[in-house]
Design a protein that fits this description.
210 residues; mainly alpha; two-stranded antiparallel ribbon
């Protein structure tokens, strides 16, 4: 069973204390066992075991490296809901262009929509719209673009009669007639469709039409 990242970090802190004090031969065996448990390569595993639990002197403070702790940094979003709503309006007015073309024509779209009274934006929103990259536009419009995806137009299911209708092409020999009709669907026939219908009804294209 593969270990999770949190379990790997806890195992690293436990193994690091013994790994630093062990001999070279014992370090090799411990490193093999640690790589097998975590799935790390030997170079990364050795670096992680050496760095875990090390002490660093920073002024009057002593810092201890702990791989189980993670610093969560929060950064406020630059493009708020108001900017995303304006971007969605511009995207719809541009007939749903892709992010690359929308970013290239953003100044023209914003100017025309504001001039004709279809859009009202302040200077800050205008500045944010003009500095958007195609990657940012694609990320902000990801939710809206999913709403316009077409579903159910592929993976066509075959009908129950799909495998029961005999099909004849121009490369197959003519079937033997039976009954009043030839119950064969002709495909790739080199004759117009009225003649094909006549052949299906039992007539002869050459004899009947000369």
């Amino acid at each position: 069973m593969e270990l999770t990242m949190r379990e790997r970090k806890k195992l690293t802190m436990v193994k690091a204390q013994t790994y630093v004090k062990a001999s070279k031969a014992k370090k090799t065996a411990m490193l093999d066992d640690f790589c097998e448990s975590t799935g790390y390569c030997r170079r990364h595993a050795a670096r992680v075991l050496h760095q875990a639990g090390q002490r660093y002197l920073l002024g009057d403070c002593v810092l201890v490296a702990d791989s189980t702790k993670h610093i969560h940094r929060y950064r406020a979003s630059r493009y708020g809901p108001a900017v995303q709503q304006v971007l969605t309006t511009i995207w719809a007015a541009s007939t749903f262009l892709g992010p690359v073309r929308l970013a290239a024509g953003m100044p023209l779209f914003v100017e025309n929509l504001v001039t004709h009274g279809h859009l009202r934006v302040d200077e800050e929103t205008w500045r944010l719209l003009l500095q958007m990259s195609p990657a940012t536009i694609g990320r902000l419009l990801a939710g809206e673009r999913k709403r316009y995806l077409l579903h159910g137009i592929s993976h066509t299911r075959s009908t129950p009669l799909g495998g029961r209708i005999p099909v004849q092409t121009c490369m197959d020999p003519p079937p033997e007639p039976f009954g009043s009709r030839r119950r064969v669907l002709l495909l790739d026939a080199p004759v117009p469709w009225p003649w094909t219908w006549w052949v299906m009804m039992g007539g002869q294209a050459v004899d009947d039409f000369g």
